[in-house]
Write a structure and sequence with these properties.
Largest sheet: 7 strands, parallel
Order of helices and strands: EHEHEHEHEHEHEHHHEEEEEEEHHE
CATH topology of the largest domain: Rossmann fold
Shape: globular
Bound molecules: NADP nicotinamide-adenine-dinucleotide phosphate
CATH architecture of the largest domain: 3-Layer(aba) Sandwich
CATH superfamily of the largest domain: NAD(P)-binding Rossmann-like Domain
Number of helices: 11
Strand order of the largest sheet: 3-2-1-4-5-6-15
Structural class: alpha/beta
Length: about 325
């Protein structure tokens, strides 16, 4: 039995709890959340299962570990490595491996090499494994692309698209793409630096490092998608002219040529949602997942499916490219 501690019982953490209870090889031993309203309550009720799990939500990791013993932590609190690093280090220093949905942890080696080194050293010293993953980053614009490249002998260029209809996604996601903002509010949020999807850079870096590509420069763009008619979701009532999401891209250039471009569009009522990859090489390939991979379900699935991979890996900070082939873990562990 693998003893799991759920760290962060928000939208994704709650869905993770539902997935964890469906796995006979997993025992949820406790949870951690900083929200006062969740502290001290039963995890089943906090996660919206409508039944008690007889598992407590503690206000901090230190408090949780006074009461329970765990093998691994599922960590779903934040996208930013500067906020998450102390949380990950505390987990690691308590001798626990961790799978996190923190986007900047999915491949920190190029953008935050010092933080990556600190986490890697702490993980090795404590004999545990740290993995950042999810649907994106973690799969669609990195692991999925890299898997396709395994049947190519040479590659000139890669372009990939993830188009997501955000109207069916969770509230934090609809918020983070700027739903309901004016274009001015959107642009000033971009200036402040915490707007848009986090993780395109991490996906690009992972693919580039695997393929041995070094860029002369990297170009990123982030634009609002604006409503042309009224739109209503479970959480927002949008008027024409208000922001309904993002159109974001990143490209890596060599000698003025764009070797790789990753495009992400996430907006309410997006047309033709899909995940697609085009590889120009030998052989050239085109691949498409119609309607796209459902983000929340896929994130929860991949963090649970990676638990056996993490528990059998060598200690250190790992990324999806370092671990054994991922697949749905339907068997016992
Ligand atoms: N890689 C991927 O593909 C992927 C996919 C989905 C989600 N994500 C990321 O995963 C993270 C979680 O997503 P979400 O939608 O579940 O967000 P969320 O609903 O905001 O949930 C985060 C939860 O963690 C709690 N929390 C925050 N800081 C904490 C701390 N220091 N200690 C303990 N608990 C803390 C929050 O409590 P408060 O409410 O009190 O802050 C909240 O309950 C986000 O950063 C999201 O972007 C990544």
């Amino acid at each position: 039995m693998v003893k799991v501690l759920q760290y962060g019982v928000g939208s994704i953490g709650s869905k993770a709890v539902k997935a964890l209870v469906s796995k006979p090889w997993i025992e949820i031993v406790g949870a951690v959340d900083s929200d006062e309203a969740k502290k001290g309550r039963d995890l089943g009720m906090v996660a919206g299962l409508d039944r008690r799990l007889d598992v407590e939500v503690y206000g901090s990791l230190a408090e949780a570990l006074k009461h329970v013993k765990a093998d691994i932590v599922l960590h779903t609190t934040s996208s930013w490595l500067d906020l998450v690093e102390p949380q990950i280090l505390e987990i690691v220093e308590n001798g626990l491996s961790v799978v996190s949905t923190c986007e900047e942890l999915a491949y920190p080696w190029r953008r935050s090499p010092e933080a990556a080194k600190r986490i890697d050293e702490a993980a090795r010293k404590n004999g545990v494994v740290v993995l950042g993953t999810g649907v994106n980053p973690g799969f669609v614009l990195d692991t999925m692309i890299l898997t396709l490249t395994s049947v190519c002998i040479s590659i000139d260029r890669i372009e990939a698209w993830r188009v997501v209809d955000a109207s069916k996604r969770r509230l934090p996601l609809q918020k983070k793409i700027g739903s309901g903002m004016s274009v001015e509010e959107f642009r000033s949020a971009v200036q402040r630096g915490r707007m848009g999807h986090v993780g395109l850079r991490e996906s690009l870096d992972m693919v580039a490092d695997c393929l041995g590509w070094n860029f002369d420069y990297v170009r990123e763009s982030l634009e609002p998608v604006v409503a042309s008619k009224p739109i209503e979701t479970e959480f927002f009532k949008i008027k024409p002219g208000q922001v309904i999401g993002i159109s974001q891209s990143i490209g890596g250039f060599v000698g003025g040529f764009e070797k790789i471009k990753l495009n992400l569009q996430m907006y309410l009522n997006a047309e033709n949602p899909r995940d697609a990859v085009k590889i120009e090489g030998v052989p050239s390939l085109e691949f498409e997942v119609k309607n796209g991979i459902p983000g929340d379900e896929a994130t929860v699935a991949i963090i649970v499916n990676m638990i056996p991979r993490v528990l059998s890996a060598e200690p250190g900070l790992k990324t999806m490219k370092d671990l054994k082939l991922p697949f749905a873990w339907l068997k016992a562990f």
